[in-house]
Design goal:
The chain has 376 residues and is α/β, with parallel strands linked by helices. It has 2 domains: 187 residues, Rossmann fold, CATH 3.40.50.2000; 169 residues, 3-Layer(aba) Sandwich (Rossmann fold). It is 37% helix and 17% strand. It contains 13 helices and 15 strands. Helix 9 crosses helix 12. The chain is elongated, with a radius of gyration of 21 Å. The model has no long low-confidence stretch (mean pLDDT 90).
Length: 376
């Protein structure tokens, strides 16, 4: 079988969806079905390390979600037919397309296009919000990364339950693991140096869905209560509403203790996690909660919002707070920093929880679903 893999909207391997695709490509068996990548022209080398022997067909040299949508709507079907695909896999199934000329399978990582009020969704584009449900319904099979996303697909898009299978993402335990804690006060991760202790949140800066502003407020409350020397490290590139987040940080009494890294290289994330005192995940919406598992696998305790898929990812291994209540968020931060027994317990439970998520299992089941769907 010849199967096309769509790399559009995977951000050149730099986002969570990009990590998902990279992990999948690393684990495709060298023999058997033939896989071929296609996507933006400037991504032609983005996956060459993960899949050095997989051909990449560049398409659509114009960047942007509108160009992406138009290509899938107008050109995709003809392209798939011309390439002779027996099936097509969409690792990021948030796109517009006409009905495929071959069986199609897509992974849905979240339904963020429908989170919150219309105002909070403006940057996602009206065309996407209107057309995505119909596009998803045209897929022959859908992989949801969590039970939460599966339920959203059923409730919001009216996809039949029989067409959806939950396949959780994994966490790379060879990369994310506890490092020895030495006495040095500075963690050096080129080109940065981080003074310890620090509280960490790894996420793109996307206001208000990622909830950075309340985290900054909670950090101020934490500092007032404890007078501890902790800093707040916010690692992620600027997206929608980043100016409001930066303004909140600039107005904080503790602005000198708040550090923005911008985009942080994926390969350096394990060291950043391992050096933290705790991770706080304040997001109002997450389709899976990769940051929760990466932190837990790194041996640091987690406090996270009781929202969306986060409790599904963390289960009993995290402390929870109301994401709309900065005081409640600060309470959990104080607990993890001041009560070392709870700190150690959360660390141990987190390490155990992370073991339940494997990229090997994720990829094996994903490829099986693709092959079964194509073979029908």
């Amino acid at each position: 079988m010849k199967i096309g893999i769509d790399t559009f909207a995977c951000n050149g391997g730099k986002s969570g969806v990009g990590v998902y695709l990279t992990q999948l490509l690393k684990r495709i068996p060298p023999s058997g079905d033939r896989y071929e990548l296609f996507g933006w022209d400037f991504d032609r080398f983005a996956y060459s390390e993960a899949a050095p022997d997989t051909e990449f067909i560049p398409r659509c040299s114009i960047n942007g979600s509108t160009a992406n949508s138009l290509w899938h709507l107008v050109r995709y079907q003809e392209f798939a037919k011309k390439r002779g695909y027996d099936g097509c896999f969409f690792p990021a199934a948030h796109r517009l397309s006409s009905r495929s000329s071959c069986p199609s399978i897509g992974t849905v990582h979240d339904m963020g296009a429908y989170w919150g009020t219309r105002k909070t969704r403006e940057h996602l584009g009206a065309i996407l919000r209107m057309a995505l449900p119909n596009s998803l319904r045209k897929l022959d099979r859908i992989i949801a990364v969590s039970q939460f996303v599966k339920q959203e697909l059923m409730d919001l898009v009216r996809v039949k339950e029989s067409r959806i299978e939950v396949v959780p993402n994994g966490v790379d335990l060879k990369a994310f693991y506890p490092r020895p804690r030495n006495e040095e006060s500075v963690v050096l991760i080129q080109p940065f140096s981080f003074r310890r202790p620090y509280i960490l949140f790894v996420s793109r800066i996307d206001h208000p869905v990622k909830n950075h502003v309340r985290l900054i407020e909670a950090f101020g409350i934490f500092k007032e209560r404890t007078r501890y020397p902790h800093r707040l490290v916010l690692a992620g590139d600027n997206r929608h509403g980043a100016d409001k987040v930066k303004e909140a940080a600039a107005n904080s009494v503790y602005k000198n203790d708040i550090f923005f890294t911008g985009y942080f290289p994926v390969q350096n994330l394990p060291a950043l996690y391992a050096g933290a005192d705790m991770a706080v995940i304040p997001s109002m919406y997450e389709g899976f909660g990769m940051g929760v598992l990466e932190a837990m696998a790194s041996g640091i305790p987690v406090a996270c919002a009781r929202a969306a898929s986060l409790p599904e990812a963390a289960e009993h291994a995290a402390l929870y707070f109301d994401p709309r209540d900065a005081e409640d968020m600060a309470d959990r931060m104080v607990t993890l920093s001041a009560n070392r027994d709870i700190h150690r317990e959360c660390r141990a439970l987190g390490l155990e929880r992370a073991q339940a998520f494997s990229w090997d299992r994720c990829v094996e089941r994903t490829l099986t679903i693709v092959q079964e769907t194509v073979a029908k």
